[in-house]
Amino acid sequence: MNTNNRLIDFVAGMARLVAEEARSEDYLLAQATAMMKELVAVDDWLMDEMARPHAQYYQQHLLYGDPLDRFSVVSFVWGPGQQTPVHDHTVWGVIGMLRGAEYGQRYEMREHGLVATGPEERLEAGQVIAVSPAIGDIHRVRNAFDDAVSISIHAYGGNIGKIQRSVFETGTRVAKPFVSGYANTMTPNLWRSA
Ligand code: FE2
Question: What is the pTM of this model?
Fold first, then answer.
């Protein structure tokens, strides 16, 4: 079997999902979570080009972008010890751990500024978490390892690389606008082979 078929099945499932009418965010997150669990259950399909870390920066490789910007699928590659700033997404998303592990710390904007909520949570290979403005959208994420690459697969209800969103500083109400973009300029061939 062409192992890319796992990714093609996932993208096809997402395309069907966003084409459904009258869908609530709860429904979208439940369906996308179930599909993401299936996708990250087996680590044999991610092409090497989309699994490449960078010595300095964590990498966001676009695996598939819906031409109508209804969803995007990204491989998020952590070099050893790399971490994000505190950031939001502004759209729903599901994050599945494919290889290694990562830590996520959630935050909430309060009257006097941004505060961490709850303990840092470790996401292990095969596990999936969700984010959205309705269920909690601000977090900081880091590679769980200082000596190994980790990779998580993200699917969002929009084109995450071109959405204007924000990074934050704890203890302040300052939101700095940013657009994350993508590390790659060419996306994988998702032609299904026999
Ligand atoms: Fe995030």
Answer: 0.96
